[in-house]
Amino acid sequence: MACLNPAQLQKFQEDGFLVLEGFLSAEECVAMQRRIGEIVAEMEVPLHCRTEFSTQGEEQLRMQGSTDYFLSSGDKIRFFFEKGVFDKKGNFLVPPEKAINKIAHALHAYDPVFKRVTHSPKMQALVRSLGLQKPVVVQSMYIFKQPHIGGEASSHQDATFLYTEPLGRVLGVWIALEDATLENGCLWFIPGSHTSGVERRMVRAPAGSVTGLSFLGSEPARDDSLFVPTPVQRGGLILIHGEVVHKSEANLSDRSRHAYTFHLMEASGTTWSPENWLQPTAELPFPPLYT
């Protein structure tokens, strides 16, 4: 099974991330890509996602609509698009499968293919070997990183968005479904940056406020030379500590960089912040990883 050996465990604890090549087979990757193709083919795109308004007032409303769509996506399968892929009337300027940025945030709960991968025996064995007692799945995303238009993910810590007390209880699992290279936007990490807390938090604004979301604190300036590129081949998995600083560059190549990623929280002795944008719901409490 996919248990970590002591050397791997130590490396993860020191660096805050760990690459495991060959975690999934090519067949397992293909099954997920095929399933996502079916989901995209059947998707219905809400109007506010399609429309690019011109006036500032309308722009605000559109952003608010998008924020609501985002804020209520924790227990649903929803679609998020790259900038500039719709015309003024809301028609796609590129094929829909080339316009989509990500599908989120509950694939792990509602789609049988992604549920099976998330809760697979080898995934459970891997997480057990990290010492997690009661891990629950808090969110999942399929990220497309489209050729030429796949945007960058600026440097961040996952705990900015998924905050717990105490810290150190969130774990990201990132699986390359296509080769992630320097050219198409692989992840970059600052090794060892997971030990100095969280500088910035995204929180839900109080009910009735205009924005829906706000930030506490600010992201410190980070020395670019500290980042280490982490290319990984199709089927490879990267474990990501909730506080390790990471980013990805824009995809300027002509090859996409599909990935499936989900986040776990050690639920034993942990408080999930009630201010996090993502909250468990009556329809979908955070499901236990171990089945």
From TrEMBL:
The prosthetic group or cofactor this protein requires is: Fe cation
This protein's record includes keyword Translocase: no
Instruction: Kindly give the Pfam families that the UniProt entry links to this protein.
Output: PhyH
Q: Which domain of life is it from?
A: Eukaryota
What does the record give under GO molecular function? dioxygenase activity; metal ion binding
Annotated keywords: Dioxygenase, Iron, Metal-binding, Oxidoreductase
InterPro entries found in the cross-reference section? Phytyl_CoA_dOase-like
Q: Does the keyword Flavoprotein apply?
A: no
Q: Which PANTHER family match?
A: PHYTANOYL-COA DIOXYGENASE DOMAIN CONTAINING 1, PHYTANOYL-COA DIOXYGENASE DOMAIN-CONTAINING PROTEIN 1
Similarity remark: Belongs to the PhyH family. PHYHD1 subfamily.
Chain's role = 2-oxoglutarate(2OG)-dependent dioxygenase that catalyzes the conversion of 2-oxoglutarate to succinate and CO(2) in an iron-dependent manner. However, does not couple 2OG turnover to the hydroxylation of acyl-coenzyme A derivatives, implying that it is not directly involved in phytanoyl coenzyme-A metabolism. Does not show detectable activity towards fatty acid CoA thioesters.
Q: What is this protein called?
A: Phytanoyl-CoA dioxygenase domain-containing protein 1
